[in-house]
Each structure stands twice: as structure tokens, then as C-alpha cells.
Specification:
This protein is 35% helix and 18% strand. With 310 residues, it is α/β, with parallel strands linked by helices. It folds into two domains: 155 residues, Glycogen Phosphorylase B (Rossmann fold, 3-Layer(aba) Sandwich), CATH 3.40.50; 141 residues, Glycogen Phosphorylase B (Rossmann fold, 3-Layer(aba) Sandwich). A seven-stranded parallel sheet has the order 3-2-1-4-5-6-7. Helix 8 crosses helix 11.
Length: 310
């Protein structure tokens, strides 16, 4: 099967392209938002092929994966086919709704020719999709292995575009938690905030695993894949009890709360107690493997792909 999709979210796409198909990914000369091509900081298999907009129309495409509203028009232009009408199409929603959340309409609401795929049940609950069919395929992670050492008595936060996203990603809380424990920030465009910038995924995983605790401060994101990666690494978690986090992080894997004083106390305790940190990290890894393993993710996606192209 030839699957056409844009490179939008590197971690999610890294898991998705581990499937058994050929994946056609647009590339523009400037590698801008709608033509990033193959990943440069993630490891992708040879089954991911770059195509230009001119080449796209000449390729046989069996199913289209849409992740942003603008891609519907681009698909019409580049592929010469109408998404959901003469080309099976799935719209994957990675993000939580914004604005007047209780009544936020999804961009593809009331589009019976499309299927809207949410990455969390929390997303599905909060988006108003009208009559559009909505399903959930929860995240899956390419297991980096148990790399945790926790040798550095520090916490780590991983978030992209921390300055721009501000309160959404809890950037404003970082100075407060730095008073509870030494803290390192990693992620794309984090350098202006004293962070360490963007690293290749394999390097980032090793760097994370040397820190003792993973700190997750996101107020309003769907479910950060860096959190699930940290759990796979075997890291204990201290996290805000927001969006899908309470379901993803079991009690034995760390501390989840909206009481900042409780989180600060937990961070201090885990940084100071390597034995407890390691035990909770092992529990986190078991939970992540069980619910967010790659095999389950690819199996769920395969069933859905086969259904829509039938």
C-alpha cells in the first residue's frame, strides 16, 4: 500500500512509518512546513520515500493521511484527487482544541467522507466533530530500550518551542521547579530559555536517561510523546494531572497532581532518592510498554488502513 503523508510530528511519524507499507512524504527545496521530507533527527526506514509536488501526481496513492486543514487543498492540487471522495483519507488530530473549548468545532466536522483519527480519548471527548466518524488510535513508541541510569541528580523537561507555547507547555512553571531541584530543558527552540536545543532522537534519549526524574509541566497538550519516551526509557515521572496524563502514568510510576506544592515535594524526594526513582521508573516502563507499545499501535493502524481502502 502507498500511504501519502506530510512530515508534521517527527516522533509520531517515526512510529507510524515502521509499518509494512511504502510512505510517500513531500519535500520542497526549502524544507518548509509542507515539504520537510525525511526526518533528519529521527531514524526512518528506507520505505519512506521523498516526493516533490510534481512527482506526487504521477505516483499511485492508496490512502492519504491528513494532519492539518491546509493539507486537504494541497492534496487536491498535488494529487489531483478529492480527499475522501476518490481517494481514501484519514485526518489525524494530534492537538487539543483551542479557544472556546467546550464548543470547539473540528476543521473536518460534518465531513462524512472522512474519518477523524484522534491520538487520545481525551482529544476525542473535547473536539466537536459533528457527524464525522471519529476513532481513536492511541500513541505507540519505538522502544528505545531501558537506558535509565539516573546518575545525575537532576530533572529533565523536554518540550519543543517552549518560548512560543508558553503557558500551554508550562514554560512559566520552570523557574518555580528549578527551586525544588536542578533542571535541564531540551527541545527545539529551547535555547533562548537556557535550554540545550534540538538533538538527534537517539542522543536525546541517552541524555534524558542520565537525569533522575522526568518533569512534565504541559497544561494543554494532547499527550506529549516525550513523556511516553521517558517512560519507555525507565524514568520516573512528576507531572501535572492534565489531559490524558492521569491515564498514561499509573500511581506507581511517579506523582501526578495539579497541586504544585505536591509536585515540588515529589520532585525533591525523587531527585534525592535514587532507589525510589529507579523503582518508579521501572513501573513507568512496564506501563508504557503495555499501553503504548509499537506492536499494538501498528496493529491498530493496519486494521484502520485496510478498512478505509477496502
Amino acid at each position: 500500500m502507498n500511504v501519502f503523508l506530510w512530515h508534521v510530528h517527527g516522533s509520531w511519524t517515526t512510529a507510524f512509518v515502521q509499518g509494512p507499507h511504502r510512505y510517500l512524504v513531500p519535500r520542497l527545496p526549502d524544507r518548509s512546513a509542507f515539504g520537510r521530507g525525511r526526518a533528519e533527527t529521527w531514524s526512518w526506514p528506507a520505505s519512506v520515500e521523498e516526493v516533490t509536488p510534481e512527482e506526487a501526481r504521477q505516483r499511485a496513492v492508496d490512502v492519504l493521511i491528513v494532519q492539518r486543514p491546509e493539507e486537504l487543498a494541497l492534496a487536491r492540487s498535488w494529487l489531483g484527487r478529492e480527499p475522501g471522495v476518490d481517494l481514501p483519507a484519514l485526518y489525524v488530530e494530534h492537538n487539543a482544541p483551542a479557544g472556546a473549548v467546550p464548543s470547539t468545532r473540528h476543521p473536518v466536522a460534518d465531513r462524512p467522507e472522512l474519518t477523524l483519527v484522534h491520538v487520545t480519548h481525551w482529544n476525542r471527548l473535547f473536539w466537536d466533530a459533528g457527524s464525522t466518524r471519529s476513532v481513536v488510535v492511541e500513541h505507540g513508541i519505538v522502544d528505545p530500550g531501558y537506558l535509565y541510569t539516573g546518575t545525575l541528580p537532576r530533572a529533565v523537561v523536554v518540550v519543543n518551542e517552549a518560548r512560543r507555547r508558553g503557558r500551554v507547555t508550562g514554560t512559566d512553571l520552570i523557574p518555580r521547579f528549578e527551586k525544588a531541584a536542578p533542571l535541564d530543558l531540551f527541545g527545539m527552540d529551547s535555547a533562548p530559555l537556557g535550554g540545550h536545543g534540538n538533538l538527534p532522537q537517539a542522543v536525546l534519549h541517552r541524555v534524558m536517561a542520565r537525569r533522575r526524574v522526568y518533569l512534565h509541566l504541559c497544561r494543554w497538550t494532547s499527550l506529549g510523546l516525550s513523556l511516553l519516551e521517558a517512560m519507555h526509557l525507565g524514568m520516573p515521572v512528576v507531572a501535572l494531572s492534565t489531559t490524558e496524563v492521569p491515564e498514561a502514568v499509573p500511581r506507581e510510576a511517579g506523582v501526578v497532581s495539579n497541586r504544585l506544592d505536591h509536585l515540588e515535594a515529589a520532585l525533591r524526594r525523587l531527585v534525592a532518592d535514587p532507589a525510589e526513582a529507579r523503582a518508579r521508573g521501572l513501573a513507568a516502563r512496564r506501563a508504557a510498554q503495555r499501553r503504548y507499545g509499537l506492536a499494538r499501535f501498528l496493529r491498530d493502524w493496519e486494521l484502520l488502513l485496510q478498512e478505509v481502502v477496502a
